[in-house]
């Protein structure tokens, strides 16, 4: 080997690298953009679809950033293996992994096939990444799983599972059994809405994210001796395709806490479940109010709709003199006051919900 080749190889191998999954759009794209600004190393924007990923890279290049690209379908073990080989050969190790790729069911229809595919992507992918990419993690590397408010233990209402998932010596088997228990209940038609918060809405997504946040705890325990930090976090309700554009936060707002967690957070934050405002939340507090409430989406939808149309302040005298029933008059007056004359009420309402969303 020529001396110059040797030096080149050394330079490349000593470069720090960060990998973001599912980064062609949404929160993952925002994270890549933020890392490009703040991380002193190579940032990989990865996506399952090569064309969509390269398009996203082109957007960032136009903004003056230089992310690198590689195809990565986290639910496809052969794609993860190809990426592993590429990283090993070209970089020798990994400093940061942000597991962001995810899907939501998008319908209330709770079939076995749909539940399994949501769980395979949101939770199975973490298992694939763990199996193939974790061996490349360098000492003191940081891993972040983008979970959800659906990933807090308070989403589970079944007492046996709350107890088992809260065990100090929680194992992968416990978590996999939890996932299998849910899938089995859907297959056999014995699924009970009361086993989950919010009357069991989007149960497959809740199960996948609870499993992901529980696995974070096991992974931290195992990787502790290598100084590696693993956390999971809820990014807030972010305006992306997943939420059909409804959200309190832009993708750039939403990227701040993930990037803080992998670049700056003190090493005492480990194996933790972190809220989008950087608060470390007690994941085990199953009675807490952190679980996802579908109403928060509807509230935001209503708020968005009303904030776009001009509703004049309607005087109550007009409502009464036009033979509108007193109950309807009250509702119309309230909406009119809330969303037109007194915009601050509208904002305050948003803020109240935001605190616990
Ligand atoms: N938005 C929110 O309010 C919110 C709240 C809580 C948690 N989250 C979590 O935040 C993460 C990002 O969500 P988002 O809102 O940004 O959603 P999004 O806009 O729908 O983006 C999801 C990304 O994941 C990718 N993806 C899906 N399956 C994949 C696979 N098998 N391999 C690789 N990439 C895959 C998608 O790629 P394609 O373009 O190819 O589909 C897309 O790039 C998810 O884990 C989600 O659960 C979001």
Walk me through the structure.
- There is one protein chain.
- The chain folds into two domains: 3-293, NAD(P)-binding Rossmann-like Domain (Rossmann fold, 3-Layer(aba) Sandwich), CATH 3.40.50.720; 296-356, no CATH class.
- The protein contains 13 helices and eight strands.
- The protein has helices at residues 3-14, 26-38, 50-62, 77-90, 112-132, 159-165, 172-188, 203-223, 251-263, 295-308, 316-321, 326-341, 343-356; strands at 17-20, 42-47, 68-71, 94-99, 137-146, 229-233, 273-274, 280-281.
- Strands 3-2-1-4-5-6-7-8 form an eight-stranded mixed β-sheet, with helices on both faces.
- α2 crosses α9 (251-263).
- The longest helix is centred in the middle third of the chain and has 21 residues, at 112-132.
- It is globular and about 65 Å long.
- The N and C termini lie far apart (57 Å).
- The model is unreliable at 1-11 and 338-357 (pLDDT under 50).
- Bound molecules: NADP nicotinamide-adenine-dinucleotide phosphate (NAP).
- The site of NADP nicotinamide-adenine-dinucleotide phosphate has 30 residues, from α2.
